[in-house]
Write a structure and sequence with these properties.
Sirohydro_Cobaltochel/CbiX, 249 residues, lyase, alpha/beta, three-stranded parallel β-sheet, Rossmann fold, 8 helices
Length: 249
């Protein structure tokens, strides 16, 4: 809509070029869904443009309002500490620019359906859908120093198990439990066909690290630039506008 605040989607950033390419493809879908609303991509770290640079550019263009949507799957340190601090700095530099931070993408039911579809596709490709009782799923996520954030991911694994009817264990790339423990638990429960379901927006160094821990273990695809993610981004934008809680200097 003409005059709508700019949407600034901010991703974590990665040294792996596949990550930035994936979030750029997602932003293409976001823009296509509402071509009348300006939408920009920014990064917290490791990639350009940085969030501060993008917000300075928005202010320099004469715009007075922006909604920042974190392209993050969990509400951990980056969403709760890093990003608010960067927005406060940008607001101090640009006192006429009002900023609102939206909620993270989170464990939205639509994302759970995307994850389920990735699992279904990977198991069907291997012919495993004919014997689902032999299948076990490892839901693999980044992991956090926040125990609460890790518990939320473990809850997601339980929701996926309820959705699929397949035993599911959680593992983390940067925390415990690690992949080896999750697979051991599934095998102890009788599963002899194991599939890793990455709870990652994009491929990158951490998804490669998980693959390297057990090279023979098959992995489903990451969430990627699915249309459902674009819809969730706009929902987070709309909800943030409805709250009307701007950050200002």
């Amino acid at each position: 809509m003409p005059g709508s605040p700019t949407l600034v989607a901010v991703a974590h950033g990665s040294r792996d070029p596949r990550s930035a390419a994936t979030v750029a493809a997602l932003l293409d879908r976001v823009r296509a869904a509402r071509p009348g609303v300006p939408a920009r991509l920014a990064f917290l770290d490791l990639n350009a443009p940085a969030i501060g640079q993008v917000l300075d550019s928005v202010a320099a263009s004469g715009e007075t309002r922006a909604v920042v949507v974190p392209l993050l799957l969990g509400s951990a340190f980056h969403a709760r500490v890093d990003l608010p601090a960067l927005l406060a700095d940008a607001a101090a530099r640009n006192p006429r620019l009002r900023l609102t931070q939206a909620e993270v993408l989170g464990a939205d039911p639509r994302l759970l359906e995307v994850l389920h579809e990735r699992v279904r596709t990977a198991s069907t490709e291997r012919g495993w859908d004919t014997a689902p009782e032999r299948l076990g799923i490892v839901l693999a996520a980044v992991g956090s120093s926040s125990a609460a954030a890790n518990r939320q991911t473990a809850q997601l694994a339980r929701r996926l198990a309820a959705r699929t009817g397949i035993p599911t264990e959680v593992c983390f790339a940067t925390a415990e439990p690690a992949l080896r423990l999750a697979t051991a638990r599934l095998r102890a429960g009788g599963a002899d066909r194991l599939l890793v379901a990455p709870w990652f927006l994009a491929p990158g160094l951490l998804t490669d690290r998980l693959r390297g821990q057990d090279p023979l273990l098959p992995h489903a695809e990451v969430l990627g630039p699915d249309p459902a993610l674009a819809a969730i981004v706009w929902d987070r934008y709309d909800a943030a506008l409805a709250r009307t809680l701007p950050l200002s200097a």
